[in-house]
Amino acid sequence: MKSTLLLVAALVAATTAAQAHDIWITIDKAGGNCRAIVNYGHPHDRPAALADKIVELAIMKGDNRASLMDGLTQTQNGTAITVTSKAFDCGHTLLALHYENGFWVKTPSGAYRNATKRSVPGALDSLWSVKFAKVVTGAGAPWSAVVGHELEIVPLADPAAKKADDSLPVRVLFQGAPLANIAVERTDGMTPIKEEDIPRFTTDKDGVALVQIPNTGPQLLAVDYKVSPSKTPELAGADLYNATFSFVVDKDRY
After folding, report:
1. Are strands 125-136 and 80-84 parallel, antiparallel or unpaired?
2. Is 38 part of a structural domain of the chain?
3. Is 253 part of any domain?
4. Which neighbouring-strand residues pair with 81?
């Protein structure tokens, strides 16, 4: 049964591979300790994240960095598949995720498959996809840390100090350098929203965008960046990078 569900999830992902799906982390605080939940897709399209595509899940507290990879579990509830971490003390921590989404091609029939253009010589399109995510779990988290992801969103002010109607300045880095003229999307990660209706905030020449925060609750910032030609042109036409940053604006602060 489990293998059948995984196959269904993979096929769903294949049919939507042309879209720049996000990977992001939410925090389950039930039972006193916390667990990380790995989410994939968009609010209107949520195929399963797969544990075997996670290259790194790190937890940072201050300057200390440790791995949560040993505690990853993939569970199923009906047709839903959820990837979670082991429990941890999360009040002052940041989590960082590296998700290897692999190679994708658009076949001559228009279908998407998890393969390289070397395997599908007549592919209409091809790319390599990699995704990164960060989440702060509460006040005192090292929110300003640059963790070294190839594409990374770095707040320039403490997200935990923000309230509704504030703005949060963030810098977008690509391979360590500021990325100008790139759109930072903002959603809550849960409410279905059309692609064209997602609020976007463009970075300036220093890679900085000022993101408006309209309300309390979960906030999900996302960036996509496509580079062509690919670093591996024999396998893909382009490289597609995705990065997210998650935090919560706490209504109890008011």
Report:
1. unpaired
2. yes
3. no
4. 76
3-state secondary structure of 105: strand
Could you write out the DSSP letters of every residue in 13-59?
Answer: HHHTTTS--EEEEEEE-TTSSBEEEEEEEBTTB-PPP-GGGEEEEEE
Distance of CA 67 to the CA centre of its chain: 18
DSSP 85: P
How far is residue 136 from each of residues 34, 143, 161, 231, 249, measured CA to CA in Å?
A: 12, 6, 12, 32, 11
Range of the domain at 217: 2-248
Residue with tokens 């990164």: 132
What pLDDT digit, counting tens, does each position of 106-161 carry? 999 999 999 999 999 999 999 999 999 999 998 889 999 999 999 999 999 999 89
Which residue's entry shows tokens 């879209």?
A: 19
If you average pLDDT over residues 79-103, what whole number do you get?
A: 91
Tell me the whole-structure pTM to 2 decimals.
0.89
In a domain, 58, yes or no: yes
Give the span between the Cα atoms of 46 and 114, in whole angstroms: 18
Distance CA 183, CA 213 (A): 16
Number of independent structural domains in the chain: 1
**Positive or negative: CA dihedral 86, 88, 90, 94:** negative
Report the relative pairing of strands 167-174 and 208-212 from DSSP bridges: antiparallel
> Considering the domain boundaries, does residue 112 fall inside one?
yes
Token pair listed for 92: 């002052």
- The SS3 assignment for 119 reads coil
Tokens of 80: 């839903």
Mean pLDDT (the chain) is: 89
